[in-house]
Amino acid sequence: MSAVWTIAIEALSWMELEGTSLAAAVTRTSSQLGIHDHRQVAAARHLVRECLRRRNFIDAIIAHALAPEAPTAFSLGVQAFLRLYTYETTFTAAGRAAGVPLAALGRRILGWKTVRPVEEALGRILAVNPLALLNDRDEIERISLRTFHPPWFTRYCIRLLGRRDALQLLTTREDGAHSILCVNPFQAGEAAVLSTLAAQGVNVEPVAALPYVYRLMETPVPLTRLPAFRDGTIFLPTLAACLAVVAGKPTAGDRILDVGATHSGKAAYAALFLQESGRVIAVDYPSRRMMRLQAQLRRLGLPHVTVVAADPASTLPVAGTADVIYVSPPSSGSGAFWRTAAKWRGSAVVTPMRERQWRLLTASVKSLSPRGRIVYSTSSILVEENELIIERFIQEHPDFLLADVTPRLGRPGLRGQGEALRIYPHQHHVDGTFIACLVRGAEVDF
Question: Which is nearest to 297 in space by CA: 270, 326, 263?
Fold first, then answer.
């Protein structure tokens, strides 16, 4: 437990100081501390993630307990410990009984002199009635605290969906999330793979209209620990990525560009439709995520997939044009706010994201064949990152029209873009997603 909390406190501190991502902060911290037990590292990552998901309510409790002093009066280590302590004693089954041993743990990790100034506050945190903190707040603030979302996002969802639908989205629980797996026919026959999985206690059901894709119903161990995963017989795409790939209607022999490949996970699934006569080129900025993508593709044994590290918003270093281009730009990630801590970056992140999304989409046109298709998708539910981008694109490229995205697993797009598709977490227990398929007007024949 001491190692887990040491990693968690240090990782939270780095995240606060440098804006580091959760994964990067935990990896960096565990390496610096020389803690390499994967179970301890995973437990620390889970602890930090669950704490940060509830950050607004946790910070409200801490502020109440410390008043009149502000949390920022203390070191980052103390602030991190207070958040983790409040999460564990208020929002987990451990409850208040964990207060005394956790206080002792904090003294061991940070030193008793460091923790001493907040000793009384630790006791007051245990005495706080969380529901009482909702009094004298307006409705948006109350909903935001109860659902652990920033007020701007709460307000946005209510405007977008209406109060009842918005509350369902904001209260979506991750324990109902659906996992899927994809069988890799390049490695083994589909029937044989399913038979092997069944013998190992893995129960799956096919997902209609998505070839090779199965919804996971039951598994005795994490899928990543199965031999089928290690040898590339199966892989784990997202449902949204698979839907976007099918929306582009790839066929054998097609030449495909996956622009923004590290944000999409589409390259591997798209390759399954090409047999061995087509080609997928996955393009994104040089990064560790690109290295992981290359490793995944090697494991899957997909030789007709090429990874190109380049600026996808400029002229791509590839010859010729593509039949299908998947544009998957970075986004606010609002479709995943129900399960991640990215929501605390604030609404200001949307504007720079929109510019990057626009650049990637418009840059893709010059690489498209005359009868090609562009599939634009994001993990966002914000109109500004979706329909408004498509609306602007069609205004500036009047030779393009929207084609129907099929299968229709979700709701129609907004602002008259009924051909597009919107997926919401509270309906399908997957990340919120937007998918639009763009074709030149004279070629809308499917």
Answer: 270
pLDDT digits (tens, 9 = 90+) for 193-229: 999 999 999 999 999 899 999 999 999 998 988 999 9
Half-sphere exposure of 347 (CA within 13 A, CB side): 13
The dihedral through the CA atoms of 163, 168, 172, 178 has a sign that is: negative
- Among 435, 443, 427, 345, smallest CA distance to 168 is for 427
Whole-angstrom distance, CA of residue 437 vs CA of residue 191: 32
Q: At what angle do helices 139-147 and 55-66 cross, to 10 degrees?
A: 110
Kindly report the pTM of this predicted structure.
Answer: 0.91
Q: What are the structural domains, with CATH classification, of the chain? A: 2-134 (1.10.940.10), 139-171 (no CATH), 176-235 (3.30.70.1170), 239-443 (3.40.50.150)
Q: Contact 330/356 with Cβ under 8 angstroms?
A: yes
349: Cβ contacts below 8 Å, ≥ 6 apart: 332
